[in-house]
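Quick question, first post here. What does this chain look like in 3D?
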Amino acid sequence: MHTQDGSVLLFEALGKCDPRMIDSIGIDTIEQFHIWCMENLERIWFETMAEKGFWPGFVMIEDLSGIGFHTFSTQVLKVVQTITYINQNYYPDMLRKAYIINVPSVFYMFWKGISLWLEPRTLAKLDMIGGGTEAIVENLKSFTDEDQLPRRLGGTNPRDIPEGGPVGDIAVKLRDKSKLGYVEVGRAGSYEKTVLFSEGDTASWEFKTKFYDIGFAIYYLGTNPTGTTKTEEFAMQRYDADKRVIGGTLPIKKSGYYQFFWDNTYSWTRGKSLKYNIYKGVDIVE
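> Answer (accepted):
Ran it through. C-alpha cells below.
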C-alpha cells in the first residue's frame, strides 16, 4: 500500500496483541522478530531507491484500539523501550511519518514517560489524530486514496490486519520452567527429545541459549524409540543460538520416531541454558 506521493504505507494495531505473549516467547524473541521485520523493510528501502532514485519513506498508521491498563505492564514498557532504541539507532531514516489513531485516554497517562525515550527528530514525525471515526477518516484520506485504506478506516481495500487471539494456556505452559522446553545442558553433555511423527506431518522447531553456542541435529530412529540405529535427517551444525532464535522445518516423509539432539560435548568448561519448542504442525509437543 502507498500514499498519494509514493511513500510505502504500513499498518500496525497494538491493541490486537495479547501482552501475555511476552511471557510465552520471551522479550529476546520479540526483539529478534522486530529486527527481522526491520531487515525486510530495509530490503524494500533498497528496492525503492533503485527504482525511484530516492527514498520517499515509510508512513505508519498505528491503531491503538483495544489498548487498556492491562497493556502497560513493566514487561511491555521494556519491549517498547528496546524497540524504540533499535529503530532510532539502527534505522533512523526509514520512517517519514507516523499517525496514531484511536488513542484511548489511558495512553496519555503513559505517553509522557514513553516520549522521554524518543529523540526530537522522532517526536517530530508523530501525529496523533483525535476525534471520532469521521475525523480520522478525513485525515487519512488527505494523504492516501480510499483503495489503500482498509474498510474499517473508511477505505475500500478488503485487506486488513488479521484479528489476534489470546495466548491463553500456552503462556502458562511456557512460563513453567519445570516442563520440557527449559533444560540445562551440562558441560561436555547433550540433550535429546524423541517425538513420534507420521508420514505427511511437518516437524518444526525453535531454540535459543542464554549464553554461548550449541550443536543441533535431527535423527530418524525408525519404529523403535530406544533403538541404536539412527540416520541423520537434519545435519549436525553448531549455532550461535545466544545471538538469535534458531528455527526450521522438516517435512516428514517416513513415519516413526525422530530424535531432536542438542550437542554440547565439545565444550568441557561451559554448560548451556537451553529453551526450545518442537511443533507437530501448529501444536507444541510437550
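Residues 90 and 230 are 45 Å apart (CA to CA).
The chain has two domains: 8-153, 177-284.
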